[in-house]
Amino acid sequence: xLLPAANPNLMxxxxxxxxxxxxxxxxxxxDWDGAGPSTRLWDLAYAAQSFGMLFEGQAVKSAATRxxxxxxxxxxxxxxxxxxxxxxxxxxxxxxxxxxxxxxxGFQPWADMFANGHGEHWRAAANYVAQNKAAWEQAIAQA
Length: 143
Fold this sequence. Notes:
Blueprint: E1 10-12, E2 21-22, E3 28-29, E4 36-38, H1 40-51, H2 60-74, H3 78-105, H4 110-131, H5 133-140
Antiparallel strand pairs: 1-4, 2-3
Helix pairs in contact: 1-3, 2-5, 3-4, 3-5
């Protein structure tokens, strides 16, 4: 597992994102090479950030609205909602760190991805998510 979760208890995709979803008559997730043991929270943290487009340059209010829609649609319970903002920041930081260390070790294809801008993208994404944690907490709090 490239980005292992603490105490895995579920088989997860580990890369649920718009770039791994084919939309047509049927919606199909692709790129299952990272599938493996994880947790619902760790997998949801990545999916929520990527589908919610919680990335640098996005208006926080709009991103929070998208995050709320995804979390509500997922049917997240109170425990998931409370843990998700911190998990998103930790997951984005882990993605950056994996890319950075791959560049240093030459581990492919991640080393090339770091050099081609993915490292900077995930560094900025981790900062954006961490800096706006209060907005995410407010957006997904159960009413």
